[in-house]
Write a structure and sequence with these properties.
Layout lengths: L1 E7 L4 H10 L6 E8 L7 H6 L3 E3 L8 H13 L5 E4 L8 H7 L3 E5 L11 H8 L3 E8 L9 E8 L6 H24 L12
Parallel strand pairs: 1-2, 1-4, 2-3, 4-5
Antiparallel strand pairs: 5-6, 6-7
Helix pairs in contact: 1-6
Bound molecules: 5-O-phosphono-beta-D-ribofuranosylamine.
């Protein structure tokens, strides 16, 4: 059974999909803790699914490194096999990435290396491209440039807003996330082969 810590900053709708998958006795992974860098709405999923949560507010630490060390300490309490950044909107310091990678995944709402960064959906819309996508990557010390584990194209439709496009992308992100965690648990994907650190 693969144990996961999932970090979020927002509503956690992708996390919810993973938690629902984990309710299936046949699914070989379990979320053991949910962490956030703020008072994220998605932390409520902990209570709903009976999973412990922790929050390490960025603002209450003197530096990014001090904040990152506390995030790492919290993660390590759970000795997870894998850490998933699912809408976690802060860059982890390099030493935290080095401590966890390649067992550290991030979901991104674009077809990387296209449109990295915090506004992948908005940037794709502004560029006027006919299709964008969703990607699941191993986190390394760059911004959204780690090894790509899974990705899929998503069309941009006439009249799309950032919200409508993001919602279409997120349905794909959820599927990629649930499938990739399954593939890792089953040994069909070996993250060590994707290690760059
Ligand atoms: C996802 O699109 C993720 O890739 C992005 O933030 C979104 C998270 O949404 N970085 P949610 O909190 O899972 O609803």
């Amino acid at each position: 059974m693969l144990s996961l810590v999932v970090l979020i900053s927002g509503g956690g709708s992708n996390l919810r999909s993973l938690l629902e998958a984990c309710q299936d006795a046949e699914y070989p992974a379990r979320v053991v803790a949910i962490g956030a860098d703020r008072d994220a709405d998605g932390l409520d999923l902990g209570e709903e699914f009976g999973i412990p949560t922790f929050s390490v507010p960025f603002s209450s630490h003197a530096s990014r490194e001090a904040w990152g060390d506390e995030v790492l300490a919290q993660i390590r309490q759970w000795t997870p096999d894998l850490v998933v950044l699912s809408g976690f909107m802060r860059l982890l310091p390099p030493r935290v990435v080095a401590a966890l990678s390649p067992q550290l995944l991030n979901t991104h709402p674009a077809y990387l290396p296209e449109f990295p960064g915090a506004h992948g959906v908005r940037d794709a819309l502004a560029a006027g491209v006919p299709e964008t996508g969703a990607s699941l990557i191993v986190v390394d010390t760059g911004v959204d440039d780690g090894p790509i584990i899974a990705q899929e194209r998503v069309p941009v439709l006439p009249g799309d807003t950032e919200a409508s496009l993001h919602e279409r992308i997120k349905t794909v992100e959820r599927r990629l996330l649930v499938q990739t965690v399954l593939d890792i648990a089953n040994g069909h994907v070996d993250l060590e082969e994707h290690s760059q650190i």
